[in-house]
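Class, look over these structure tokens:
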Amino acid sequence: MKNPGYGNLKGWLVARKISQSEVAKLLGTTPNYVNKKLNGTGPDFRMSEARKLHASFGVPMAYFFEVNVPFEERAEA
């Protein structure tokens, strides 16, 4: 299951007029690959990528983490 927070991340980038090309340049990849990540058809963002986006653009780290994990998938404490 892909991270549903990526829709929020995508909206956050659009609201701040940060293009997928800018994100791709920062991450050293292509805009197409960034688009796949944001739309859930590619791999999830790596922690190193999340840190770069946070440091460079101020992207909230919460957008990179699954918030609503189904009960049966949660790790036991």
Q: What stands out?
A: The chain has a mean pLDDT of 85. The longest helix spans residues 5-15. The chain has one domain: 7-66. The radius of gyration is 13 Å.
